[in-house]
């Protein structure tokens, strides 16, 4: 016999679990179906982000940054260490603890908000009176009917053709987070967020890392000045990045991995490594969803087709997050989840893609929101630019981390903030101020007139806003 709900969410990642909680808060009888398993076979709610993405990668980035500071920066503070070593199994155990804390936290939130949870894989069966029937294949098969269905099934790592992931030598983000010891040589294909972050983790711990990137330019999505500063910083750290390459073959038949590629000059090269991380993007996850059973429309890339409000071609079926258009970011999925739950309730959910921030948690951190300078030039928009270096920021000097700068772009006539770009210490936190300002259509002058605490890294944001009119006070 089917169990009936007002709202059923398929997927318990950032978009899915947030959508379920918000729907329950709005008074709907809500269920969430998720199949992630922990090492013991139990539920591990939180999707890719919590289990093999955002959360565990940040845990390893923090551990590896501590190790690098201990080896290279503590001496400047008068701290002397002897026999410095990294215990990789213990580091991975800490990461697993952080992941479990997040899994358990979401499970608690489901109980608190009275969201019914089903552990298994959900698939469409048919349209029925009052909604849609789903089959949940778990420890015991169950039938669930939802008046409204929210598809939040996320995405999977894209594999190289002819080189499937074995998570031993050819690694996705999942395997890259579970390497049991520091590899002597590590290769990374793709210099996006995942490639840079995970490459940084193992480089800090002692691996010789080389990143191969197909694009002719580095960090093409970022502002050009930010990308240039990042390339300089990573080169100084000896994180080798080669651009404009074409991988022709990956051979993992031996002890390690051989990557054959053509370099930017057309010469044939071979990179031999112990492990290879492939981070060339992600693909929408609709495996087992059985969309054809109800006529749910997918596009040529396998994504669920939605309109501007996340409505699919079917009445009362919605889709959010990585499985639909737009940036594949956890916080974008969360905002869509809240918006859809509120739209189901007859409210007006709001998601503004132009104020969705991007962050790369390397060292230095990289963050931006809004338009880049090259995009403004391409559209012929008249703009003003202001920039302030962390080298002139008192708090950054005290931290011993003065790499990078904050950059503002504003309309030349109205002074409205069009984009804010940052590279430097803790800019993942600083970017929020820019998001708030842009959401409220603030001008650069508004930020310049706001009192910022001293000494703080946030003063660099104020000074960059002042620089729009060439009136910085500390540079």
From TrEMBL:
What species is given as this protein's source?
Scleromatobacter humisilvae
Please report the stretch or stretches of sequence annotated as the FAD/NAD(P)-binding domain: 5-337
Name of the protein in its database record: Dihydrolipoyl dehydrogenase
This protein's gene is called: lpdA
Q: Which GO terms describe its molecular function?
A: dihydrolipoyl dehydrogenase (NADH) activity; flavin adenine dinucleotide binding
Signal peptide (residue range): none
Q: Which cysteines are joined by disulfide bonds?
A: 49-54
Q: Which cofactor does it need?
A: FAD
Q: What else is known?
A: The active site is a redox-active disulfide bond.
Looking up Pfam families in the UniProt record yields:
Pyr_redox_2, Pyr_redox_dim
Q: Which reaction does it catalyse?
A: N(6)-[(R)-dihydrolipoyl]-L-lysyl-[protein] + NAD(+) = N(6)-[(R)-lipoyl]-L-lysyl-[protein] + NADH + H(+)
Top-level EC class: oxidoreductase
Q: InterPro entries per the record?
A: Class-I_Pyr_Nuc-Dis_Oxidored (IPR050151), FAD/NAD-bd_sf (IPR036188), FAD/NAD-binding_dom (IPR023753), FAD/NAD-linked_Rdtase_dimer_sf (IPR016156), Lipoamide_DH (IPR006258), Pyr_nuc-diS_OxRdtase (IPR001100), Pyr_nucl-diS_OxRdtase_dimer (IPR004099)
The active site consists of: 454 (proton acceptor)
- Entry's EC annotation: 1.8.1.4
Family of this protein: Belongs to the class-I pyridine nucleotide-disulfide oxidoreductase family.
- Compartments, record wording: Cytoplasm
């Amino acid at each position: 016999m089917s169990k009936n709900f007002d709202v059923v969410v398929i997927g318990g990642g950032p978009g899915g679990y947030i959508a379920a909680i918000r729907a329950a808060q709005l008074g709907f009888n809500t269920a969430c179906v998720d199949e992630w398993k922990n090492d013991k076979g139990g539920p591990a709610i939180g999707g890719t982000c919590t289990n093999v993405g955002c959360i565990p990668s940040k845990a390893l980035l923090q551990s590896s940054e501590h190790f690098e500071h201990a080896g290279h920066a503590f001496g400047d503070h008068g701290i002397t260490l002897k026999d410095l070593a990294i215990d990789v199994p213990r580091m991975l155990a800490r990461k697993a603890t952080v992941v479990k804390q997040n899994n358990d936290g979401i499970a608690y939130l489901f109980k608190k908000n009275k969201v019914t949870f089903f552990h298994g894989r959900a698939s469409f069966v048919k349209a029925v009176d009052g909604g849609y029937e789903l089959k949940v294949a778990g420890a015991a098969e169950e039938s669930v009917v939802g008046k409204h269905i929210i598809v939040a099934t996320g995405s999977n790592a894209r594999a190289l053709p002819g080189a499937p992931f074995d998570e031993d030598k050819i690694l996705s983000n999942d395997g890259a987070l579970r390497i049991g010891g520091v590899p002597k040589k590590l290769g990374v294909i793709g210099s996006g967020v995942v490639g840079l972050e995970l490459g940084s983790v193992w480089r800090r711990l002692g691996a010789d890392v080389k990143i191969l990137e197909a694009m002719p330019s580095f960090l093409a999505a970022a502002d050009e000045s930010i990308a240039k500063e990042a390339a300089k910083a990573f080169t100084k750290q000896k994180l080798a990045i080669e651009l404009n390459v074409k991988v022709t073959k990956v051979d993992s038949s031996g002890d390690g991995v051989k990557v054959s590629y053509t370099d930017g000059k057309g010469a044939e090269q071979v990179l031999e490594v112990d492990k290879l991380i492939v981070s060339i993007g992600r693909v929408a996850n609709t495996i087992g969803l059985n969309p054809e059973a109800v006529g749910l429309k997918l596009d040529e890339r396998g994504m669920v087709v939605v309109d501007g409000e996340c409505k699919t071609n079917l009445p009362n079926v919605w889709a959010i997050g990585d499985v639909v258009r737009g940036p594949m970011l956890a916080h974008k999925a969360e905002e869509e989840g809240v918006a859809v739950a509120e739209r189901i309730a007859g409210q007006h959910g709001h998601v503004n893609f132009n104020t969705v921030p991007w962050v790369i948690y390397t060292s230095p951190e990289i963050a931006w929101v809004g338009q880049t300078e090259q995009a403004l030039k391409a559209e012929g928009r008249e703009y003003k630019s202001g920039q302030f270096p962390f080298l002139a920021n008192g708090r950054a000097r005290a931290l011993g981390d003065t790499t990078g700068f904050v950059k503002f772009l504003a309309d030349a006539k109205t002074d409205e903030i069009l984009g804010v770009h940052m590279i430097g210490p803790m800019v993942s936190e600083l970017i929020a101020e820019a998001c708030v300002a842009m959401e409220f259509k603030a001008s650069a002058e508004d930020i310049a007139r706001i009192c910022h605490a001293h000494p703080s890294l946030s003063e660099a944001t104020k000074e960059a806003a002042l620089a729009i009119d060439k009136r910085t006070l500390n540079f």
